[in-house]
Amino acid sequence: MSLNIHAQTNDADEARDLIEKYIENSESTVDYTDLYDQIDALLKVPVNINTAGADGLMKIPLMTPQKIQEIITHRNRYGNFTSIYELQQLEGFDKAFIQMILPFISIDQPLTFKNIGSRQLLKAGTHEMIGLVTQRLEQSKGYTLSDSNPNKYLGSAQRAVLRYKGTIGEHLQINLTTEKDAGEQLNTRTLFISGAVFLKDIKRFKLIAIGDYQAAFGQGLTFGSGLAFGKSPFVLNVLRTQNGLRAYRSLNENEFLRGAGITYQLHKHVTLTSFYSSNKIDATVTADSLQNEEGFSGFVTSGYYRNTNEISKRHAITRRLIGSHLTMQYQHLELGLTAVNTRYDKALTTGNEPYQLYTTQGNTFYNFGMDYKWYYHNMVVFGEWSTNAFNHLSTVNGALISLGKQLDISVLYRHYDKSYQTSISNAIGEYTDNKNENGCYAGFALTPAKNFKLNGYLDVYRAPWLRYGVDAASSGKDALLELQYSKRKKYNWYLRYRNEHKQKNEDGTQILNRMEDNERSIWRFHIETNVSPAITLRNRVEWTKSVLQYGQTTRGFLMFQDVVMAASRQLKITARLMYFDVDDFNARVFAYESDMLYAFSVPAFQNRGTRFYVLAKYKLNKNADIWMRFARTAYENQNAVGSGYDTISGNRASDIKLQIKWTL
Amino acid sequence: MLKLLLKLLFIGPCFVAQAAGYLPFAGAEAMAMGNSTLPGQNAFTAINNHSLMPWQKHKGIGISLTNRFGMADVNRAVVAGVVPYKNFGYGMKLTHYGNNAYSEQSIGLSVAHAFNEKLAIGCGADYQSIAIAGYGHRGVVMAEISLSAKVSEQLLMACRVYNPTRAKFSDYSDERLATIWQMGLQYKVNAQVKTVVEVEKSNAFAANIKGGVDYTPAKDVHLRMGFSTLQPQFTFGFGFKYKQCQFEAASAIHQTLGVSSNLSVLFEVGH
């Protein structure tokens, strides 16, 4: 038995590995394609370190104000960088750091209409088509119901996705995505179709977007669609830099904008972005028995139309958005103004529960905001002030400060008023709705010795009014401490401790709900070793503990072994063997899994069992890649897997995936 | 004082019985390092970690005798042998535990392959049987897989899954042998000191963290100390080598149950 191994030198894989590092730290099961696109866009158009201002340089991942200052000072003193490796002369830019940011930076001019002919531009284009089919091998309950049951899944068990993305130079981008979910019928009522055309840098038009897109401004408090980083082990990552319009290529069937948008350069220092969107989204519609007027009580975000019940909620309301953002940039100061109008064709009519007291009902909503960023020596100060109807002011303000080359700190204060309401926002916070929350966050990243890093944060917050499942004013805190060691190219490990306290109603049905503290702790040790240029091993051991103040204490444990192997120049194999033993949902353990291009998963595990997956990527030729993945979870203490109509009888769940990518 | 030391070293309990859900190990070195199975590069790799066998320099055989709680009825004996050949290692083991009323026996064969100086994998098959006086005996075949990586001169990493297929012992109430997962790191601090830390998780118990330090004050002389957390115990031991023979002894102290001990002899062939 011998193994013929080759070093892996695929740039796309390296970029993906970097993106995996971001997501690997996440503890959530949302669709990460949007985040991938944000990072991918940066990889496609790297930041030019000779021309970018402080704001542009801040877009480079892991950048700190001190490092930006170093680049600008060096540029002012010695002129443009002639080689990227000149960065090594700057303080705080060691080899490992430069290696990490290398995919995101350049010193060359990007292609533009000015310096390239149209024929060359067409040649410089790329076209990418992806076909994906997945299936769960075991049949779930939804398929076995009788035909008369409104919950019976009407379609086949396969899920299929087709994607096209074409770019011509850096100016024209076209994308089209279609998806049929497992259990859905293949027809126009259930099929998800999304597409967009993006034009960039045409005279004063910085961007013209037609079709489906995302938009985010300032710190995402007045308006921000799409996925954004929250609290994470990247403790300094509290400043939002990816502003403006961007293409939408995710598969979420509700959370995007559909219409048109432009970004126009009004003046050397002033840019205007305006957008209009009108799309039908899923919601639970309610009828008022007295006035016979229809309203809606909440959004349905699953995007599944597998049975008649789910189909009845599809595209139940129309949401129209019109908004603008004006940016003024002068030297190191950036100011922005945002105004957004949201209009639903049916009125938002939530219930009359006490926690809904401050929810504004009706058809039409306005949001206005002012945001700022100021780069001053070794710090950046940023924030946003927002209001709806001018009387409920909300704000988020923060700073990133470099206290020497070994220590960076981040601080952030937020006050999201209990009456504040936005249609779409993604500002940083404990709760995703950006209302009814006051909080203070502080983080640090310290390099105490060579190869070591110590990161941590503490976030303390309070909800002054009631929330769903929380029948009183509540509070919480969230702390993280992580020690990292990295021996370049050999191995790296980290030890992480995270502790959260959050108040909720006492578990179980009570006559009068009292606040119960829910504590959750995580201990994780993760090591990644490069045994040879072609073989990487990853091991993890993780413990979780959940303590309910008036209830029980439960625990979780997870352990895995990964082998990532470039078996030949064409074939890359990733395999995992994992064991988990978790008492209940409160003690659940999250573990990132490698998947095929544009697929990301951070599943949560509970109960006891083993899981394995094998992912193979094979390069058929210069233009085509093929991925295959088989995953199986086998539970030791369960006779059924899943919940609701997705329940499988038996103790196993197996998934198979096949994806082909063709590029021109 | 000497009596106390002898008592500490040679009398008392340890928790080994694999049918009960603990990872099987052999040798006083493993026991002295908190029942860690990673550190020893000797004939006991045929039971402790198959994937280390190809890196063995010489053929070897080892005998390990464990006395538990000072009671002969729960003694355990192991004989193991390893033959390294080119990039492969072949192993064999025999174990016996218990008395006339209740006993566990196993016989196992294993093979391992080193892809290079840094990465090796191993697998093995055991026939595990239990005999109870008056009831007869029952046996089952079970598997084991392991992987070791020498990440650097100092760092060795290993992963091991014992009985991944959950071999069924009896149809009555679906009785199965425990599946046990283990991961460990060994770090050589300097030429004289090596440390080890391991996590062991059986589906029958909570996770067990084990660790130890091996100190070499003089050539071929070892002093060891360790701990394990599940049934909290401290472990101690020493070993020395004379020509091709290695003699080792270890003790484990449990606060309630007392002391257990192990004596091992290893013999290397082909110097």
Can you give a write-up of this model?
The complex is a heterodimer of chains A (664) and B (271). By secondary structure, chain A is mainly β. Chain A is built from eight helices and 33 strands. In chain A, a hairpin with a 4-residue loop joins strand 24 (535-548) and strand 25. Chain B has 271 residues and is mainly beta. Chain B is built from three helices and 16 strands. In chain B, strands 1-2-3-4-5-6-7-10-11-12-13-14-15-16 form a 14-stranded antiparallel β-barrel. In chain B, a hairpin with a 4-residue loop joins strand 6 and strand 7 (155-162). The A-B interface holds A 1-3, 5, 487, 490-491, 527, 529-532, 535, 537, 539, 541, 543, 555, 557, 559, 561, 563, 577, 579, 581, 608, 610, 636 and B 87, 113, 115-116, 118-119, 147, 149-152, 155, 157, 159, 161, 164, 166, 179, 181, 183, 185, 199, 201, 203, 206-207.
In short:
The complex is a heterodimer of chains A (664) and B (271). Chain A is mainly beta and 664 residues long.
Q: How are the strands of the largest sheet of chain B arranged?
A: 1-2-3-4-5-6-7-10-11-12-13-14-15-16
From the N-terminal CA to the C-terminal CA of chain B, the straight-line distance is 39 Å
Briefly note the structural class of the backbone of chain B.
mainly beta
Low-confidence stretches of chain B: 1-20
**Order of helices and strands of chain B, N to C?**
HHHEEEEEEEEEEEEEEEE
Specify the number of helices of chain B. Answer: 3
Number of strands of chain B: 16
Q: How can the largest sheet of chain B be summarized?
A: 14 strands, antiparallel, barrel
* Rg from alpha-carbon coordinates of chain B: 18 Å
